[in-house]
Design brief:
The complex is a heterodimer of chains A (about 260) and B (about 325). With about 260 residues, chain A is an all-alpha fold. Chain A has one domain. Chain A is about 80% helix and about 0% strand. Chain A has eight helices and no strands. Chain A starts with 10 loop residues before the first helix and ends in a 6-residue tail after the last helix. The mean pLDDT of chain A is about 85. With about 325 residues, chain B is an all-alpha fold. Chain B has two domains: about 140 residues, Alpha Horseshoe (Serine Threonine Protein Phosphatase 5, Tetratricopeptide repeat), CATH 1.25.40.10; about 130 residues, no CATH class. Chain B contains 18 helices and no strands. Chain B is elongated. The two termini of chain B are about 40 Å apart. The N terminus and C terminus of chain B are likely disordered. Classes of the chains: A mainly alpha (about 260), B mainly alpha (about 325). At the A-B interface, helix 1, helix 2, helix 4, helix 6 and helix 7 of A face helix 1, helix 2 and helix 3 of B.
């Protein structure tokens, strides 16, 4: 587009051309960043699902035994303090169970194909809300982008294609006319993209320092050294479950604990 | 989180919710905290062992205690604490505490702990209650021996050979017989006579009966006499008939029951199958028997409690 402009350009037109170039560069960067962020989110969600299924459920089981022990002790002691402790332990067990068996635990392994990545990039390129020409367009793009993120996360290429088609056939996709209007639009788009890039950076940093990301980093580092940290964690918690169950059984059968 | 929240929520509703759910996050945090605690416990173990090597025992015990606070299920730390309390090195001697730590480590498969716990039951333990509980001792020796811990195997062999502990399977019965237990020797004689779990072998049967008879087993003497009177032919190999002990021989044994040196002689001169046994096996059996004879009065000089250092392999077994 800029190569067609040879001369006879008003300063306004020249400014528009420069800004369009700037916008194009920013848009390309935005697409890459959105893709990385989507990948990071999906990888973390997948790891979280794996962790909850493998280790989280064991913590939930451990908490259940601990709650049983506390409840038994409360019944035996009959003190207010023991009852409070027991109900706290039971609440903890309930929380752990809900977390370990909730939606997050259903996240499947995330391994997007190059085609899927490319498709998602196309979607971002065309329908990212920060490329919107006006507020109506922006609302449509927001909705479609949210759907696209979900589709990408569940690695659903067909859904991504449909989203692309829906946007193309939308009347909102028509662009405005006139140099001044165009420049105004480009400047606003640039502003939005810069803002969005900052958000992405902040969210990436936040995600990277989240508990699950730190845990994943540890697991990955250990894996490189040939250790399976998840297996070790499972073994550890399982051992604690066995001890807790023994303790409970000792108590409830009125045997003297060893 | 500032003004970007709505945009982000609009962009990615489902993904961020699962990541920010408190329950899942706290489970992840818990896993990480436990990992960290286990790593730190490992550091304390390392530090404690270094101090122990430099004979700074009290500091070493303090390290083990720090470690066990962080990871109460660390088997090697449990063993090290057991050792401290058992030997009274780096901590006041406390048999009950030592036994409790050894037990926890032993239950997690630390063979040195299994052995030392066995020794405590065996009676090298000043504490009340569980002295001379030989069956318990044997059970822990068995577990350590199964992991290839030789000293435990030797202790178990002694208990079996002395007839203090009842063999639990055919392998142990054989061990008991080889270590001089006359009851087990008589049983082995039965096995070879009848081909029970072993190929029928009357020469072997006679050998074990002789060993038992030599120690005064009336059953074995009767069995020897019966074999001599009504020789039963082995089904496949007719040659084996030459291996039967003549009645006069059985009588001869009765005449000289204590003369171990004489045992192989009449057998090798008259029993063809016995001479056909591989020389090494013949040697082995007899040497084993004599060695056992000298072991029948266990020396009491070897009563130091347990191993002084965990073996390198024991140290490695941290999970």
């Amino acid at each position: 587009m800029p190569t067609e402009i040879v001369h006879h350009l008003s300063p306004e037109e020249q400014e528009l051309a420069r800004k369009r170039q700037e916008l194009a560069i920013l848009q390309a960067e935005l697409t890459d960043r959105e893709l990385s962020l989507a990948n990071l989110r999906a990888e973390l969600a997948a790891f979280e699902g794996l962790y909850l299924r493998e280790v989280g459920v064991l913590y939930a089981e451990l908490d259940d035994w601990n709650a049983k022990i506390a409840e038994f002790a409360a019944e035996a002691a009959g003190t207010e303090q023991a009852r409070t402790a027991a109900s706290e332990a039971r609440a903890q067990a309930g929380e752990s169970y809900a977390a370990a068996h909730g939606d997050a635990s259903k996240a499947e392994e995330f391994a997007p194909s190059p085609e899927l990545k490319k498709l998602f990039k196309d979607v971002v390129n065309q329908i990212h809300p920060d490329r919107a020409a006006n507020e109506i367009d922006r609302a449509l793009r927001n909705r479609l982008m949210a759907e696209a993120n979900l589709a990408y996360k569940r690695q659903d290429a067909n859904a991504l294609r449909k989203i692309l088609e829906e946007y193309k056939s939308s009347p909102e996709a028509v662009k405005g006319e006139g140099v001044a209007a165009n420049l105004e639009r480009v400047l606003r788009q640039i502003e939005r993209i810069v803002k969005r890039l900052a958000q992405i950076e902040a969210e990436t940093a936040e995600l990277a320092s989240s508990e699950i990301a730190l845990l994943m980093a540890k697991v990955e580092t250990a894996k490189a050294k040939g250790r399976s940290l998840l297996a070790e964690m499972k073994q550890d918690v399982q051992h604690r479950i066995d001890l807790a169950r023994n303790e409970y059984e000792d108590q409830s059968s009125n045997r003297r604990p060893r | 989180m500032s003004t970007g929240d709505e945009t982000r929520a609009a962009l990615v509703p489902a993904q961020s919710t699962s990541l920010t759910k408190a329950g899942a996050r706290s489970l992840a945090a818990r896993g990480r905290a436990d990992l960290r605690a286990r790593e730190e416990a490992e550091e304390w173990l390392k530090k404690g062992c270094e101090l122990r090597d430099r004979e700074r025992y009290e500091e070493a015990t303090a390290c083990f205690e720090r470690g066990i606070e962080l990871n109460p299920n660390h088997a090697v730390l449990q063993f090290m604490l057991g050792l401290s309390f058992d030997n009274g090195i780096g901590a006041p001697r406390d048999v009950a505490k030592a036994r409790a730590w050894y037990r926890r480590a032993a239950e997690q498969g630390i063979k040195e702990a299994q052995y030392n716990l066995g020794l405590m039951y065996y009676g090298f333990d000043d504490g009340p209650g569980e002295r001379n509980n030989y069956e318990q001792a044997a059970n822990w020796f068995r577990k350590a021996a199964k992991q290839g811990f030789e000293r435990a195997q030797n202790r178990l062999d002694l208990l079996l050979g002395e007839g203090i502990v009842v063999p639990q399977n055919s392998a142990e019965t054989r061990v008991a017989a080889e270590h001089g237990n006359k009851g087990a020797q008589r049983i082995l004689g039965d096995w070879y006579r009848d081909g029970r779990g072993v190929p029928q072998d009357h020469a072997q049967a006679s050998l074990w009966y002789l060993k038992a008879a030599e120690q005064g087993s009336a059953d074995a003497k009767a069995a020897l006499a019966a074999m001599a009177q009504s020789p039963i032919q082995d089904e496949d190999e007719i040659d084996l008939s030459a291996g039967f002990i003549p009645l006069s021989m059985a009588t001869a044994i009765e005449i000289h029951p204590d003369d171990i040196e004489n045992l192989p002689l009449p057998l090798s001169s008259s029993a063809r199958t016995y001479s056909e046994l591989s020389d090494s096996r013949q040697e082995e059996t007899i040497r084993g028997f004599e060695a056992t004879k000298s072991n029948l009065q266990p020396s009491t000089s070897d009563e130091e409690s347990g191993v002084d250092q965990p073996s390198a392999s024991g140290m490695g077994a941290t999970d």
